[in-house]
Amino acid sequence: xxxxxxxxxxxxxxxxxxxxxxxxxxxxxIQSTVNRASLILSKDISKDDKMNQLKLIAKETVDIHGxxxxxxxxxxxxxxxxxxxxxxxxxxxxxxxxFSSRLAEYTNPEIEVKNKEVLSKTYTIVSSVxxxxxxxxxxxxxxxxxxxxxxxxxxxDLIIEGLSLARTQKEEFSSILSSxxxxxNALFKVLEDFSKN
Amino acid sequence: xxxxxxxxxxxxxxxxxxxxxDGEIKLSKKVEPAKDCFEKVNRAxxxxxxxxxxxxxxxxxxxxxxxxSPIKSGTSNALTNxxxxxxxxxxxxxxxxxxxxxxxxRLVVNTTLGILGIFDVADKMGFPxxxxxxxxxxxxxxxxxxxxxxxxxxxGPTTIRDTLGxxxxxxxxxxxxxxxxxxxNEYLDGKLYAAxxxxxxxxxxxxxxxxxxxxxxxxxxxxxxxxxxxxxDRENKIKNIQRGSIEVIYKEDEGWEEIDDK
Lengths: 197, 262
Known about the structure:
The structure holds 2 protein chains of 2 kinds.
Chain A: H1 2-22, H2 26-42, H3 47-61, H4 64-72, H5 81-104, E1 111-118, E2 123-130, E3 139-146, E4 154-160, E5 163-164, H6 165-178, H7 184-196
Antiparallel strand pairs in A: 1-2, 2-3, 3-4, 4-5
Chain B: H1 2-18, H2 39-65, H3 69-93, H4 97-112, H5 121-124, H6 135-141, E1 149-152, E2 156-159, H7 160-173, H8 175-181, H9 190-207, H10 209-217, H11 222-238, H12 248-252, H13 255-261
Antiparallel strand pairs in B: 1-2
Helix pairs in contact in B: 1-7, 2-9, 3-4, 3-9, 6-7, 8-9
C-alpha cells in the first residue's frame, strides 16, 4: 500500500512537471512565432507560397475564433447557431487571407521582443519593435496574448503604434452592418467576396 | 481677440461634457463608437479625396520619395521645427511647463545651430524625443469630446473638436500663420505659408504610402478603417500615450471580456 502511495505521488509530481515543461511564457511565445514568420518571409519562394505557410502559423498561434466574435461586437448576440457556424467559417478564410497578405509585404522583418506586462490571468501584453531599415522607421508592435490556457497561449490582437487591428476590424464590421440595416447576410457577402478576390 | 472666442467656445463645450451631457460631445473614459453624424456626406468627401489622392497626392508623394535622403530628412526636420510654434503654446495650455521649456530650447537650438531646423542638432545634444501638440489635443485634454467625425474635402479626416482646433491656429494660435498672412513683413507671406502646409502634407503622404496601400488592400470597408485609425490615433495623442507603451486603452475595452464570458 505504501509503495502504491509512493508511486501515485511520484506520478503526480511527474505529471505536474510535464505540464510545467509545456507551459510557455507569452514573450517567448511571441518571439518564437515572429522568428518562424520571419524565416518564411526571408525564403526565396513565391508570395503565394509565403502566404500559405504564414496561414499555417496563424492557425496555430492566433485565436481566430475569438477575434471573429470580438469583431462582430454586439451583433454576435443576435446570431443563431447556424449563423454562428457560417460566420466562423467565413471569418477564418477572411482573416487568414488578410493576415498573411499584410505580412507578406515585408521581406525579412526583424522583430525584437522587449518586455511583457500581465494585465490579468487571461491577458498579457507583449511589447516588441520592428527594427528600422533604410526604407522605414522603427515600428512599435504590442501583442495582446490570451493566456487562459498557459500551455497554449494565443494572439488576440496586434497594436501597431498604438492602433489596434482588432478594434479597427470591429469598427469596419460595425459600419458594414449599420449601413445594411444590421443584416448579417450583408457582412457574410462582404467576407465571402474578400476571400474570393 | 478671435482666439479668445475660440477658447471660450471650447471651455463651454468642455464644461458641458464635465456636467455629464449625453449630447454629441461628452467626456468618457470608455472607448466610445465613432459618431459619424454625416456619414453619407463624409463618404462622398472621402471618395473625392481618394480620387484626388490617386491623381495628384500619391504621384507627387512618390516623386518626393525619390529625392535624395538628406533633402527629405532636412525638409522633414525643418517642418517639425516649425511645428514647435504650435506645440509650445499647447504645452503651456495643458500645464506641461517643463515640456514647453524643453521644446522652446529645441526650437532655439535647431533654428540657429540647425540652420532653420534643417538639422536636428537638439536631438544630438540629448533633448528628449519631440511630441507634437495642437489645439485639438488641448481641447481634448480639457475634457472636450471629439463630437462628430468629419471628412473635409482635400484636408481629410477630422472631428468637430479638431476643426475648432484648426480655427484656433488661423485666429492667432499659430505664430507662423500670423506672421505670414497678417504680419506685413518682407520675408513671409501667405503663399509661403500655403507652400509650407502643402509640403507638410506631401511629406506625411510620402511616409505613409505602403501603410495606406496595405490598409486599403486588406480592408472590407476602407472608409471605416481610416475613420477608426484616425480616431484611435487622436485618442492616443490626447492621452499622451507614448508610442508603443502599454496603456489603459487595452484595459478599457470590455469587448474582450464579453468574449471570454460567453
